[in-house]
Amino acid sequence: MKTVNIKSPGGWDIPADYTIEGHEAMVCIIAHGFGSSRKSSTAQMMLEHCKALGMGAVAFDWPCHGGSEAPYTALTIDNCQRDLQAVEQWAVQRAPGAEIVYFGSSFGGYNTLLHLCSGVSLGRRAVLRSCAVDMDTLFTIDTPGVREQIAEKGYYHYDPGFGPGLDLCETFFETLAGNSPFKLTLPDGVKVHLIHGMDDDVVDPAEAYRYAAEKRVPITLIPATGHGIDSELGISTLLRLTASFYTQAK
User: Fold this and answer.
1) Among 235, 47, 39, 59, which Cα is nearest to 130's?
2) DSSP one-letter code for 155
3) Residue 248: CA atoms inside 13 Å, Cβ hemisphere, count?
4) How large is the angle between the packed helices 77-94 and 107-118, nearest 10 degrees?
């Protein structure tokens, strides 16, 4: 595994780990969750899993996450979308001709859905783990304490319960509110498979199921499993599902 800093259109560096050698027929872009990083156990597991499948892969940090040194004002949905595109462009230059596929966790799944619906994505297939399909309503500027902290400090400090947390500017909430996966159309030919724990207390499984039903995409629900899908059954199902999904014919 190697590390690279990919230049963001915003001017900051996007830290990334990758296994791409250049000859692969398929490359997976791995997007981590909110408050997490490319060094998360799931992102690192997927890097190794993709390598074992003969695929290249790249896991990167969103603005203000992990090793990113972007200013807190850089964390907006618009900038996340631009950084995802920058990583995607870097990947196709690294492995010319490779098919791009995606793996997104929670917030990373949310952003991957937005990217797929934008019409500019180079890939057409994604597995989304604990996807935050309702991110735009799950966390808003009207969440208790948010407006007050922004008025006092210029930002709201979000503590996910691990890591240093995130300082969120008002523009983050504005761009979040303006991007609902439920209101977007998946283009023809795009294939998405959701995998969700039935005991997820962060993203309601009912919302994931509703999205799957409305958009007519498959969903795998894992019993006795939470948001991290880190149970033995959850991990084995995730690895089996991604192996099947990525290696099937287009």
Assistant:
1) 235
2) S
3) 12
4) 70
